[in-house]
Amino acid sequence: MSDSDATKRRRTVFWVVALSAISLVFDGYDLVVYGTVLPILLDDPGHLGAISPQQGGALGSYALVGVLVGALAAGTFGDLVGRRRIMLLNLAWFSLGMAFTAMTTSVMLFGIGRFFTGIGVGALVGTVGAIVAEFAPAHQRNRLNAIVYSGIPAGGVLASLLALALTDVIGWRGLFWIGAVPIVTVLPLAFLKLPESAQWLASRGRHEQARVVAERNGIELVRETGPTTERVGFPALATRALAWPTLLLGTMSFAGLLLTYGLNTWLPEIMGANGYGESYSLAFLLVLNGGAIVGGLLASAWADRTGAKRVVSTTFVLAAITLALLPLDLPLLVLMAAVAVAGTGTIGTQVLIYGLVSNYYPTRARGAGVAWCAGFGRLGGIGGPVIGGLLVGAGLGGMAAFYIFAGIALLAALVTLLVPRPAHEAVETTATVQAGRPEPV
pTM score > 0.85 for this model? Predict the structure, then answer.
Protein backbone atom coordinates (compact mmCIF):
# COMPACT_ATOMS: atom_id res chain seq x y z
CA MET A 1 0.00 0.00 0.00
CA SER A 2 1.42 3.40 -1.01
CA ASP A 3 1.76 6.28 1.42
CA SER A 4 -1.08 8.05 -0.39
CA ASP A 5 -3.38 5.03 0.00
CA ALA A 6 -2.41 4.66 3.65
CA THR A 7 -3.28 8.31 4.29
CA LYS A 8 -6.62 7.96 2.53
CA ARG A 9 -7.41 4.82 4.51
CA ARG A 10 -6.59 6.44 7.84
CA ARG A 11 -8.82 9.40 6.96
CA THR A 12 -11.67 7.14 5.86
CA VAL A 13 -11.42 4.89 8.91
CA PHE A 14 -11.37 7.96 11.15
CA TRP A 15 -14.64 9.28 9.70
CA VAL A 16 -16.34 5.88 9.74
CA VAL A 17 -15.35 5.25 13.36
CA ALA A 18 -16.09 8.82 14.52
CA LEU A 19 -19.52 9.03 12.89
CA SER A 20 -20.49 5.55 14.05
CA ALA A 21 -19.37 6.27 17.61
CA ILE A 22 -21.19 9.61 17.76
CA SER A 23 -24.35 7.94 16.47
CA LEU A 24 -24.18 5.38 19.25
CA VAL A 25 -23.57 8.07 21.86
CA PHE A 26 -27.20 8.99 21.32
CA ASP A 27 -28.24 5.35 21.67
CA GLY A 28 -26.60 5.31 25.09
CA TYR A 29 -28.09 8.70 25.87
CA ASP A 30 -31.58 7.40 25.10
CA LEU A 31 -30.98 4.33 27.28
CA VAL A 32 -29.82 6.22 30.35
CA VAL A 33 -31.89 9.40 30.10
CA TYR A 34 -35.01 7.35 30.76
CA GLY A 35 -33.47 5.96 33.94
CA THR A 36 -32.62 9.48 35.10
CA VAL A 37 -36.16 10.82 34.58
CA LEU A 38 -38.01 7.72 35.79
CA PRO A 39 -37.96 8.77 39.48
CA ILE A 40 -39.44 12.15 38.44
CA LEU A 41 -42.24 10.51 36.46
CA LEU A 42 -42.97 8.03 39.28
CA ASP A 43 -43.10 10.73 41.95
CA ASP A 44 -45.17 13.38 40.13
CA PRO A 45 -48.31 12.32 38.20
CA GLY A 46 -48.58 15.86 36.86
CA HIS A 47 -46.15 15.09 34.04
CA LEU A 48 -47.79 12.17 32.24
CA GLY A 49 -50.25 10.75 34.76
CA ALA A 50 -49.86 8.21 37.55
CA ILE A 51 -47.18 5.59 36.80
CA SER A 52 -46.61 2.48 38.93
CA PRO A 53 -43.20 0.78 39.20
CA GLN A 54 -44.49 -1.99 36.95
CA GLN A 55 -45.57 0.57 34.34
CA GLY A 56 -42.20 2.29 34.71
CA GLY A 57 -40.46 -0.96 33.83
CA ALA A 58 -42.80 -1.50 30.89
CA LEU A 59 -42.18 2.02 29.55
CA GLY A 60 -38.46 1.31 29.74
CA SER A 61 -39.08 -1.75 27.59
CA TYR A 62 -41.13 -0.06 24.85
CA ALA A 63 -38.01 1.48 23.34
CA LEU A 64 -36.41 -1.95 23.38
CA VAL A 65 -39.29 -3.48 21.45
CA GLY A 66 -38.69 -0.74 18.88
CA VAL A 67 -34.97 -1.56 18.91
CA LEU A 68 -35.82 -5.18 18.16
CA VAL A 69 -37.97 -4.12 15.19
CA GLY A 70 -35.32 -1.67 13.94
CA ALA A 71 -32.43 -4.10 14.28
CA LEU A 72 -34.25 -6.87 12.43
CA ALA A 73 -35.31 -4.42 9.72
CA ALA A 74 -31.69 -3.28 9.34
CA GLY A 75 -30.59 -6.91 9.10
CA THR A 76 -33.22 -7.58 6.46
CA PHE A 77 -32.34 -4.61 4.28
CA GLY A 78 -28.76 -3.72 5.26
CA ASP A 79 -27.16 -6.64 3.41
CA LEU A 80 -29.35 -5.84 0.39
CA VAL A 81 -29.38 -2.02 0.09
CA GLY A 82 -26.12 -1.09 1.81
CA ARG A 83 -24.78 0.24 5.10
CA ARG A 84 -24.74 3.96 4.24
CA ARG A 85 -28.44 4.26 3.39
CA ILE A 86 -29.48 2.52 6.61
CA MET A 87 -27.24 4.81 8.67
CA LEU A 88 -28.55 8.05 7.14
CA LEU A 89 -32.22 7.07 7.30
CA ASN A 90 -32.11 6.04 10.93
CA LEU A 91 -30.12 9.01 12.19
CA ALA A 92 -33.13 11.07 11.08
CA TRP A 93 -35.65 8.52 12.40
CA PHE A 94 -34.07 8.39 15.85
CA SER A 95 -33.93 12.18 16.17
CA LEU A 96 -37.57 12.63 15.23
CA GLY A 97 -38.54 9.98 17.79
CA MET A 98 -36.74 11.83 20.58
CA ALA A 99 -38.42 15.10 19.57
CA PHE A 100 -41.84 13.45 19.59
CA THR A 101 -41.21 11.93 23.04
CA ALA A 102 -40.26 15.34 24.43
CA MET A 103 -43.68 16.71 23.43
CA THR A 104 -45.88 13.90 24.77
CA THR A 105 -48.50 14.58 27.43
CA SER A 106 -49.74 11.08 28.33
CA VAL A 107 -48.32 7.71 29.29
CA MET A 108 -49.63 6.17 26.06
CA LEU A 109 -48.03 8.78 23.79
CA PHE A 110 -44.80 8.61 25.78
CA GLY A 111 -44.70 4.83 25.19
CA ILE A 112 -45.35 5.33 21.47
CA GLY A 113 -42.50 7.85 21.32
CA ARG A 114 -40.18 5.43 23.08
CA PHE A 115 -41.10 2.66 20.62
CA PHE A 116 -40.64 4.91 17.58
CA THR A 117 -37.26 6.11 18.84
CA GLY A 118 -36.19 2.53 19.48
CA ILE A 119 -36.67 1.61 15.81
CA GLY A 120 -34.02 4.12 14.76
CA VAL A 121 -31.71 3.08 17.60
CA GLY A 122 -31.97 -0.60 16.67
CA ALA A 123 -31.19 0.00 13.02
CA LEU A 124 -28.09 2.04 13.94
CA VAL A 125 -26.80 -0.53 16.43
CA GLY A 126 -27.40 -3.29 13.90
CA THR A 127 -25.48 -1.48 11.15
CA VAL A 128 -22.41 0.28 12.59
CA GLY A 129 -20.67 -2.95 13.58
CA ALA A 130 -20.90 -4.23 10.02
CA ILE A 131 -19.60 -1.03 8.44
CA VAL A 132 -16.70 -0.68 10.90
CA ALA A 133 -15.67 -4.31 10.37
CA GLU A 134 -15.54 -3.69 6.61
CA PHE A 135 -13.31 -0.60 6.88
CA ALA A 136 -11.05 -1.41 9.86
CA PRO A 137 -7.64 -3.07 9.46
CA ALA A 138 -7.85 -6.70 10.58
CA HIS A 139 -5.49 -6.32 13.54
CA GLN A 140 -7.48 -3.36 14.94
CA ARG A 141 -11.06 -4.55 14.51
CA ASN A 142 -11.83 -5.40 18.14
CA ARG A 143 -10.33 -2.13 19.34
CA LEU A 144 -12.11 0.04 16.75
CA ASN A 145 -15.40 -1.76 17.34
CA ALA A 146 -14.93 -1.17 21.06
CA ILE A 147 -14.33 2.53 20.44
CA VAL A 148 -17.52 2.72 18.37
CA TYR A 149 -19.73 0.73 20.73
CA SER A 150 -18.25 2.57 23.70
CA GLY A 151 -20.35 5.39 22.34
CA ILE A 152 -23.27 3.66 24.10
CA PRO A 153 -21.87 3.95 27.65
CA ALA A 154 -20.40 7.35 26.73
CA GLY A 155 -23.93 8.43 25.95
CA GLY A 156 -24.91 7.07 29.33
CA VAL A 157 -22.27 9.22 30.98
CA LEU A 158 -23.48 12.23 29.00
CA ALA A 159 -27.07 11.62 30.07
CA SER A 160 -26.04 11.27 33.72
CA LEU A 161 -24.02 14.49 33.68
CA LEU A 162 -26.70 16.48 31.87
CA ALA A 163 -29.39 15.15 34.20
CA LEU A 164 -27.34 16.22 37.22
CA ALA A 165 -26.66 19.67 35.77
CA LEU A 166 -29.78 20.54 33.80
CA THR A 167 -32.85 18.71 35.12
CA ASP A 168 -33.81 21.61 37.37
CA VAL A 169 -33.27 24.05 34.49
CA ILE A 170 -34.81 22.38 31.43
CA GLY A 171 -36.81 19.55 33.01
CA TRP A 172 -37.19 16.02 31.71
CA ARG A 173 -38.60 17.27 28.40
CA GLY A 174 -35.48 19.32 27.75
CA LEU A 175 -33.33 16.24 28.29
CA PHE A 176 -35.27 14.44 25.55
CA TRP A 177 -34.98 17.45 23.22
CA ILE A 178 -31.20 17.16 23.50
CA GLY A 179 -31.55 13.66 22.04
CA ALA A 180 -33.00 15.16 18.83
CA VAL A 181 -29.80 17.11 18.07
CA PRO A 182 -28.31 14.55 15.58
CA ILE A 183 -30.75 15.53 12.82
CA VAL A 184 -29.08 18.95 12.50
CA THR A 185 -25.51 17.94 13.41
CA VAL A 186 -24.52 14.30 12.82
CA LEU A 187 -26.81 13.59 9.86
CA PRO A 188 -25.45 16.35 7.54
CA LEU A 189 -21.88 15.36 8.40
CA ALA A 190 -22.57 11.67 7.75
CA PHE A 191 -24.15 12.54 4.39
CA LEU A 192 -20.91 14.25 3.36
CA LYS A 193 -18.28 12.01 4.94
CA LEU A 194 -19.64 8.45 5.27
CA PRO A 195 -18.80 6.25 2.26
CA GLU A 196 -20.53 3.05 1.25
CA SER A 197 -18.66 -0.14 2.08
CA ALA A 198 -16.56 -1.33 -0.86
CA GLN A 199 -16.61 -4.80 0.66
CA TRP A 200 -20.42 -4.80 0.61
CA LEU A 201 -20.47 -3.56 -3.01
CA ALA A 202 -18.18 -6.42 -4.02
CA SER A 203 -20.33 -8.96 -2.17
CA ARG A 204 -23.32 -7.79 -4.25
CA GLY A 205 -21.42 -8.27 -7.52
CA ARG A 206 -20.91 -4.54 -8.10
CA HIS A 207 -17.18 -5.00 -8.61
CA GLU A 208 -16.44 -1.86 -10.64
CA GLN A 209 -18.15 0.36 -8.06
CA ALA A 210 -16.31 -1.50 -5.31
CA ARG A 211 -12.98 -0.89 -7.05
CA VAL A 212 -13.68 2.83 -7.46
CA VAL A 213 -14.79 3.25 -3.83
CA ALA A 214 -11.82 1.23 -2.57
CA GLU A 215 -9.33 3.31 -4.57
CA ARG A 216 -10.94 6.58 -3.50
CA ASN A 217 -10.73 5.64 0.19
CA GLY A 218 -7.47 3.67 0.23
CA ILE A 219 -9.31 0.49 1.21
CA GLU A 220 -8.05 -2.95 0.27
CA LEU A 221 -10.77 -5.45 -0.52
CA VAL A 222 -10.94 -8.66 1.47
CA ARG A 223 -11.11 -12.08 -0.15
CA GLU A 224 -13.11 -14.46 2.03
CA THR A 225 -12.35 -18.17 2.00
CA GLY A 226 -14.36 -21.06 3.37
CA PRO A 227 -17.89 -22.36 2.71
CA THR A 228 -19.79 -20.30 0.15
CA THR A 229 -23.49 -19.95 -0.47
CA GLU A 230 -25.76 -17.81 -2.57
CA ARG A 231 -27.79 -16.96 0.51
CA VAL A 232 -27.54 -13.34 1.67
CA GLY A 233 -28.63 -11.76 4.94
CA PHE A 234 -30.86 -13.70 7.33
CA PRO A 235 -31.17 -16.79 5.07
CA ALA A 236 -27.38 -17.17 5.29
CA LEU A 237 -27.63 -17.37 9.08
CA ALA A 238 -29.73 -20.53 8.71
CA THR A 239 -26.95 -22.46 6.94
CA ARG A 240 -25.22 -25.33 8.69
CA ALA A 241 -22.02 -23.35 9.22
CA LEU A 242 -23.72 -20.36 10.88
CA ALA A 243 -26.93 -21.58 12.58
CA TRP A 244 -25.39 -22.92 15.82
CA PRO A 245 -22.95 -20.04 16.44
CA THR A 246 -25.75 -17.56 15.61
CA LEU A 247 -27.89 -19.09 18.37
CA LEU A 248 -25.02 -18.89 20.86
CA LEU A 249 -24.03 -15.34 19.92
CA GLY A 250 -27.65 -14.24 20.17
CA THR A 251 -27.91 -15.78 23.64
CA MET A 252 -24.78 -13.93 24.74
CA SER A 253 -26.21 -10.66 23.47
CA PHE A 254 -29.53 -11.45 25.18
CA ALA A 255 -27.73 -11.79 28.51
CA GLY A 256 -25.48 -8.76 27.96
CA LEU A 257 -28.36 -6.45 27.12
CA LEU A 258 -30.56 -7.78 29.92
CA LEU A 259 -27.81 -6.78 32.34
CA THR A 260 -27.15 -3.46 30.57
CA TYR A 261 -30.74 -2.25 30.46
CA GLY A 262 -31.71 -3.70 33.82
CA LEU A 263 -28.92 -1.86 35.61
CA ASN A 264 -29.24 1.42 33.71
CA THR A 265 -32.99 1.58 34.25
CA TRP A 266 -33.20 0.61 37.92
CA LEU A 267 -29.83 1.39 39.51
CA PRO A 268 -30.83 4.98 40.50
CA GLU A 269 -34.18 3.86 41.93
CA ILE A 270 -32.73 0.86 43.81
CA MET A 271 -29.89 2.88 45.31
CA GLY A 272 -32.29 5.70 46.18
CA ALA A 273 -34.57 3.25 48.00
CA ASN A 274 -31.57 2.04 49.99
CA GLY A 275 -30.73 5.41 51.47
CA TYR A 276 -28.70 7.17 48.78
CA GLY A 277 -29.90 10.60 47.70
CA GLU A 278 -30.75 11.56 44.12
CA SER A 279 -27.29 12.94 43.37
CA TYR A 280 -25.66 9.73 44.64
CA SER A 281 -28.07 7.59 42.66
CA LEU A 282 -27.22 9.42 39.44
CA ALA A 283 -23.52 9.24 40.32
CA PHE A 284 -23.85 5.45 40.37
CA LEU A 285 -25.05 5.60 36.74
CA LEU A 286 -22.08 7.78 35.87
CA VAL A 287 -19.64 5.35 37.48
CA LEU A 288 -21.35 2.33 35.90
CA ASN A 289 -21.03 3.72 32.38
CA GLY A 290 -17.60 5.25 32.97
CA GLY A 291 -16.33 1.87 34.13
CA ALA A 292 -17.81 0.32 30.99
CA ILE A 293 -15.92 2.73 28.73
CA VAL A 294 -12.51 2.35 30.38
CA GLY A 295 -12.83 -1.36 31.01
CA GLY A 296 -14.28 -2.09 27.57
CA LEU A 297 -11.45 -0.31 25.77
CA LEU A 298 -8.78 -2.07 27.82
CA ALA A 299 -10.47 -5.42 27.28
CA SER A 300 -10.72 -4.81 23.51
CA ALA A 301 -6.95 -4.34 23.26
CA TRP A 302 -6.60 -7.68 25.04
CA ALA A 303 -9.14 -9.20 22.61
CA ASP A 304 -7.08 -8.12 19.57
CA ARG A 305 -4.16 -10.08 20.99
CA THR A 306 -5.81 -13.19 22.41
CA GLY A 307 -9.27 -13.40 20.83
CA ALA A 308 -12.58 -11.86 21.82
CA LYS A 309 -14.25 -15.07 23.00
CA ARG A 310 -11.85 -15.60 25.89
CA VAL A 311 -12.11 -11.97 26.98
CA VAL A 312 -15.93 -11.93 26.86
CA SER A 313 -16.20 -15.05 29.05
CA THR A 314 -13.80 -13.47 31.56
CA THR A 315 -15.68 -10.17 31.76
CA PHE A 316 -18.99 -11.99 32.23
CA VAL A 317 -17.47 -13.73 35.26
CA LEU A 318 -16.32 -10.33 36.58
CA ALA A 319 -19.90 -9.11 36.23
CA ALA A 320 -21.23 -12.08 38.21
CA ILE A 321 -18.79 -11.47 41.07
CA THR A 322 -19.32 -7.73 41.37
CA LEU A 323 -23.11 -7.87 41.00
CA ALA A 324 -23.24 -10.37 43.85
CA LEU A 325 -21.26 -7.88 45.98
CA LEU A 326 -23.55 -4.86 45.38
CA PRO A 327 -26.26 -5.87 47.91
CA LEU A 328 -23.66 -6.04 50.71
CA ASP A 329 -23.15 -3.18 53.13
CA LEU A 330 -19.95 -1.91 51.53
CA PRO A 331 -18.15 1.37 52.21
CA LEU A 332 -19.10 3.97 49.62
CA LEU A 333 -15.72 3.98 47.83
CA VAL A 334 -15.67 0.19 47.64
CA LEU A 335 -19.26 0.19 46.42
CA MET A 336 -18.39 2.71 43.69
CA ALA A 337 -15.43 0.56 42.61
CA ALA A 338 -17.69 -2.49 42.45
CA VAL A 339 -20.20 -0.57 40.33
CA ALA A 340 -17.40 0.48 37.94
CA VAL A 341 -16.23 -3.13 37.54
CA ALA A 342 -19.85 -4.21 37.11
CA GLY A 343 -20.04 -1.67 34.28
CA THR A 344 -17.09 -3.35 32.59
CA GLY A 345 -18.65 -6.78 33.07
CA THR A 346 -22.10 -5.82 31.78
CA ILE A 347 -22.13 -2.83 29.41
CA GLY A 348 -18.45 -3.27 28.56
CA THR A 349 -19.02 -6.95 27.81
CA GLN A 350 -21.85 -6.09 25.43
CA VAL A 351 -19.45 -3.75 23.61
CA LEU A 352 -17.05 -6.67 23.20
CA ILE A 353 -19.86 -8.95 22.01
CA TYR A 354 -20.67 -6.55 19.21
CA GLY A 355 -17.02 -6.63 18.15
CA LEU A 356 -16.93 -10.42 18.26
CA VAL A 357 -20.13 -10.68 16.22
CA SER A 358 -19.07 -8.05 13.65
CA ASN A 359 -15.89 -9.97 12.88
CA TYR A 360 -17.44 -13.44 13.06
CA TYR A 361 -19.65 -13.34 9.96
CA PRO A 362 -18.76 -13.20 6.24
CA THR A 363 -19.72 -10.04 4.36
CA ARG A 364 -22.88 -11.52 2.83
CA ALA A 365 -24.28 -12.18 6.33
CA ARG A 366 -22.49 -9.59 8.47
CA GLY A 367 -25.29 -7.04 8.58
CA ALA A 368 -27.85 -9.73 9.39
CA GLY A 369 -25.58 -11.29 12.03
CA VAL A 370 -24.98 -8.01 13.84
CA ALA A 371 -28.66 -7.09 13.54
CA TRP A 372 -29.75 -10.50 14.84
CA CYS A 373 -27.60 -10.15 17.93
CA ALA A 374 -28.68 -6.53 18.46
CA GLY A 375 -32.34 -7.43 17.90
CA PHE A 376 -32.60 -10.76 19.69
CA GLY A 377 -30.43 -9.35 22.45
CA ARG A 378 -32.97 -6.58 22.94
CA LEU A 379 -35.43 -9.23 24.13
CA GLY A 380 -33.06 -9.54 27.07
CA GLY A 381 -33.02 -5.76 27.27
CA ILE A 382 -36.81 -5.82 27.52
CA GLY A 383 -36.59 -8.36 30.34
CA GLY A 384 -34.05 -6.41 32.41
CA PRO A 385 -36.25 -3.38 33.23
CA VAL A 386 -39.27 -5.66 33.71
CA ILE A 387 -37.43 -7.86 36.24
CA GLY A 388 -36.42 -4.78 38.23
CA GLY A 389 -39.93 -3.33 38.07
CA LEU A 390 -41.58 -6.56 39.23
CA LEU A 391 -39.21 -6.96 42.18
CA VAL A 392 -39.57 -3.33 43.28
CA GLY A 393 -43.34 -3.39 42.80
CA ALA A 394 -43.69 -6.65 44.76
CA GLY A 395 -41.80 -5.17 47.70
CA LEU A 396 -39.08 -7.83 47.54
CA GLY A 397 -36.35 -5.20 47.53
CA GLY A 398 -34.47 -4.09 44.46
CA MET A 399 -31.26 -5.58 45.78
CA ALA A 400 -32.64 -9.04 44.94
CA ALA A 401 -32.33 -8.06 41.26
CA PHE A 402 -28.55 -7.93 41.63
CA TYR A 403 -28.41 -11.61 42.61
CA ILE A 404 -30.58 -12.56 39.63
CA PHE A 405 -28.38 -10.52 37.31
CA ALA A 406 -25.24 -12.18 38.75
CA GLY A 407 -26.60 -15.65 37.97
CA ILE A 408 -27.42 -14.60 34.40
CA ALA A 409 -23.88 -13.27 33.91
CA LEU A 410 -22.39 -16.58 35.07
CA LEU A 411 -24.58 -18.60 32.68
CA ALA A 412 -23.62 -16.25 29.84
CA ALA A 413 -19.92 -16.91 30.51
CA LEU A 414 -20.56 -20.64 30.03
CA VAL A 415 -22.47 -20.04 26.78
CA THR A 416 -19.59 -17.93 25.44
CA LEU A 417 -17.15 -20.83 25.81
CA LEU A 418 -19.31 -22.94 23.45
CA VAL A 419 -18.96 -20.60 20.44
CA PRO A 420 -16.94 -22.38 17.69
CA ARG A 421 -14.31 -20.77 15.50
CA PRO A 422 -15.76 -19.07 12.39
CA ALA A 423 -16.09 -21.26 9.32
CA HIS A 424 -14.82 -18.55 6.95
CA GLU A 425 -11.54 -16.66 6.87
CA ALA A 426 -10.97 -13.12 5.62
CA VAL A 427 -7.74 -12.56 3.71
CA GLU A 428 -6.60 -9.04 2.92
CA THR A 429 -3.84 -8.00 0.57
CA THR A 430 -0.21 -7.43 1.50
CA ALA A 431 -0.56 -4.22 3.51
CA THR A 432 -2.76 -5.77 6.18
CA VAL A 433 -0.86 -9.04 6.34
CA GLN A 434 2.36 -7.16 6.94
CA ALA A 435 0.66 -5.10 9.62
CA GLY A 436 1.00 -8.03 11.95
CA ARG A 437 -1.52 -10.54 13.16
CA PRO A 438 -4.43 -12.56 11.81
CA GLU A 439 -7.73 -11.63 13.46
CA PRO A 440 -8.33 -13.89 16.49
CA VAL A 441 -11.81 -14.93 17.50
Answer: no
